[in-house]
Specification:
The protein is 74% helix and 1% strand. The protein is mainly alpha-helical and 267 residues long. It has one domain. The chain has a two-stranded antiparallel sheet. A hairpin with a 2-residue loop joins strand 1 and strand 2. The protein is globular and about 60 Å long. The two termini are 23 Å apart.
Length: 267
Amino acid sequence: MLAIKMTIEMLSWPEFGRGGWRAFRRNWALVAHRWFAYGLVLLAEPLMIWMTFGLGLGHWVSEVRGQLYMDYLLPAMSAICATLFPFWEMSQRMINRRSSQASWWVILQTPLTARDVAAGEILYTSIKGTLSALLLLVAGSMMGHVKSPMIWWSPLMLFPASLLFSSAAMWITLRVRRQNDFLLTQIFGVVPMLFWSETFFPVGEVSERLEALFYISPLVHVVRPLRALSLGGSPSETFLSLALICLTAAVAYNLAVRKFTQDLVPG
């Protein structure tokens, strides 16, 4: 019975609660007074990367599977904004606050709990990642690189994906005790995921035998549905990928919150 109860708890969709939203608003208030500058940052970096790769590689690779390379690359860059950017930001926040800041322990002197603090941290990075991805899609649409209105359903995919990667970053950072160990996860996990998840090219054209192996990457299950929504592809794969992302996001969130609570309030 205990195993069944734990399984149900891990698979349950995150409940941020009133305290989690309060912790999120605290984090958001720290940047809200400079919303214009932060909004530019959220858009400028992904826009610069997209245009650099799109125009640079697009000069030599004009089309991919019948699509202009700029059109092909845009959904992938949006997926990176929603996944890897929150992963990197959460990692940095966790490392900095665990080693040199006492803000978490100060917050615990208020009615908020450790679970609320964890929820607020995950919400903050997840919403920032989702906003960055959406801003890039809006900019790409204004430039004529979005071919289907179905793309505006993308927040249903982007937020769970951001939630998954933010939660995973929190859990991994709490599990490893040395920064050098965490760098190994980036070298052997994040970097291969960045290049081998159909972000810049179709992996099936490299090796059909290895194509099934790339489905292990969760980023693939964000890039492909977004590309289908942007370019007018079949929505069937979108539903399957969305279900998979939501399931893994729920597990990652619950694991991260439990580990955070155990570390912040021992015993």
